[in-house]
Design brief:
Elements (H helix, E strand, L loop, with lengths): L3 E2 L2 H4 L17 H5 L6 E6 L7 E6 L3 E8 H9 L6 E3 L3 H4 L1 E7 L13 H18 L3 E16 L7 E3 L6 E3 L4 E7 L1 H12 L3 E3 L6 E7 L26 H9 L1 E17 L7
Parallel strand pairs: 5-13, 7-11
Antiparallel strand pairs: 1-3, 2-6, 3-4, 4-6, 7-13, 8-12, 9-10, 10-12
């Protein structure tokens, strides 16, 4: 599934990168033995006037990204939220890049949605590409931090079960979230970005669900909106994400302490020419 983004403030807002994040199968012995790489890849500075910005995996394990800041590309490659990535120069958040990459053996004419395995492969190939073209070196850390457990509220969940094909989760700048055959692991990814802390799925729900959630985006703590994002257009009379989850979906967030993984950017450089 492709991802769409606007400028930096709506990278979390409009159609979140995790909208297409499907549960990643365990890496195979082959992928552990030799890193996956793209057959061919083009990397160049993006045009800041291009709209919409965004991108994501394409069928066959390839990738297409349009004018995305490098930090957000790194977040996608390592399946991290913004608050889990630190370090690096200021330009990784301000300069956008275009990346078009083809996986070995992929048919150029394919237009189907990428599978969960193709999502996983695209991430691994992108990690290799970032190391080669951007000289990216990261360090992984695990430390105790504030997390939120997503639980079923005492009155029971209110989402409609869906048997359709997962189409991810869309979110607008105004704080409306729409899930179509969405699984809980996708919802928790999105909630993590909204509240600025890891969210762990403790619901026990294993199905896919349709739902609409309307809330007022938080203005602090890693929430949706940042300075200059057009916050004046938001409906601040809407409930908080915590209240909205309980009233509209029958779910609740409970604060806890737990270990979480972070990455620190130790080295990065502007990309080598194509």
């Amino acid at each position: 599934m492709n991802y769409r983004f606007s400028h930096t403030t709506t990278l979390i807002g409009k159609l979140i990168m995790v909208a297409g994040m499907l549960p990643a199968p365990h890496a195979s012995a082959q992928s552990k033995a030799e890193p996956l790489t793209f057959e061919v890849a083009s990397v160049k500075p993006g045009d800041p006037d291009v709209r919409p910005r965004g991108g994501g995996p394409v069928s066959g394990g390839g990738l297409r990204i349009v004018c995305m800041p490098l930090k957000w590309i790194i977040m996608f490659a390592y399946d991290m939220n913004e608050f889990q990535v630190s370090g690096g120069p200021a330009w990784i958040e301000s300069q956008g890049f275009d990346i078009v990459a083809k996986a070995p053996g992929a048919a150029a004419s394919e237009t189907r949605l990428p599978t969960a395995e193709e999502h996983r492969q695209a991430r691994l190939r992108l990690q290799a590409l970032l190391a080669e073209r951007f000289q990216l070196v990261v360090r992984r850390e695990t430390k105790d931090t504030q997390v939120y457990a997503l639980l079923i509220a005492k009155n029971g969940f209110k989402m409609k079960a869906s048997a359709g094909e997962s189409r991810g989760l869309r979110q607008s700048e105004s704080g409306e979230m729409t899930g179509i055959a969405t699984r809980m692991e996708i919802l928790t990814k999105v909630l993590s970005r909204v509240i600025g802390h890891p969210v762990l799925d403790k619901t026990g729900l294993t199905g896919s669900y349709d739902f609409t959630l309307k809330f007022a985006p938080e203005l602090t703590g890693g929430g949706l909106e940042k300075p200059g994002s057009g916050v004046g257009t938001l409906d601040m009379a809407a409930p908080s994400i915590f209240t909205a989850l309980q009233e509209q979906l029958g779910l609740k967030l409970e604060s806890q302490k737990a270990p979480a993984e972070f990455i620190v950017i130790e080295r990065v450089a502007r990309p080598t020419p194509n």
